[in-house]
Amino acid sequence: MIAKLRGVLDETGSDWAVIDVAGVGYLVHCSSKTLAALGEVGEGCTVFTDLQVSENDMRLLGFAEAGERDWFRLLTQVQGVGSKVALAILSALSPGELRDACAATDAATVARAQGVGPKLAGRIVNELKDKAGALPGSGLAGASVVTPKGGTVAADAMSALQNLGFKPAVAASAVAHAQGELGEGAGLNELVRVALKRAAG
């Protein structure tokens, strides 16, 4: 089993990256937080991985920290949570936020993730509430790339920049710096305007 890759970030997409390891390109599917933490194309990076094999598919998942991978594995044990849903949850919530939501059986927080309805969110927090304390909640705090805060507005700003052709890592970094300049209460239009200047500069 492939547990970790260390190489050069070769290419990124909305939910994937290609890591070049000694001339071999590995396609890894990632959360938006991991994509932001990987840095710029052409730079060295390390991802912790989980290999999922099904009857029709073989998929490599990548994570900036081992703790995020632990949460992914736990989430996919819940009925109705596949790899795509688990990555959507880890894109919306840091491991710390996810741990706290499960511990408090706060289904509404988990339901913020794309594709997660109230019923599934309730099942996730109920099944994982007793396991939450055993897993790390530090998330990507140690990552070298600053990632945006503030939920929907930041996510919408990142999406807007990506729609304009910027890579996810560039969009995330630009939005994070724009938030630092404007404050977390900034509106979407202002956030996009400042982030766009940053990304284009």
UniProtKB/TrEMBL annotation:
GO terms for molecular function: ATP binding; four-way junction DNA binding; four-way junction helicase activity. Pfam families: HHH_5, RuvA_C, RuvA_N. The keyword DNA damage applies. Its main location: cytoplasm. Residues 1-64 are annotated as: Domain I. Residues 73-92, 108-127 form the Helix-hairpin-helix DNA-binding motif class domain. Keywords: Cytoplasm, DNA damage, DNA recombination, DNA repair, DNA-binding. It is found in: Cytoplasm. Belongs to the RuvA family. Homotetramer. Forms an RuvA(8)-RuvB(12)-Holliday junction (HJ) complex. HJ DNA is sandwiched between 2 RuvA tetramers; dsDNA enters through RuvA and exits via RuvB. An RuvB hexamer assembles on each DNA strand where it exits the tetramer. Each RuvB hexamer is contacted by two RuvA subunits (via domain III) on 2 adjacent RuvB subunits; this complex drives branch migration. In the full resolvosome a probable DNA-RuvA(4)-RuvB(12)-RuvC(2) complex forms which resolves the HJ. The RuvA-RuvB-RuvC complex processes Holliday junction (HJ) DNA during genetic recombination and DNA repair, while the RuvA-RuvB complex plays an important role in the rescue of blocked DNA replication forks via replication fork reversal (RFR). RuvA specifically binds to HJ cruciform DNA, conferring on it an open structure. The RuvB hexamer acts as an ATP-dependent pump, pulling dsDNA into and through the RuvAB complex. HJ branch migration allows RuvC to scan DNA until it finds its consensus sequence, where it cleaves and resolves the cruciform DNA. This is Holliday junction branch migration complex subunit RuvA. It comes from Croceibacterium salegens.
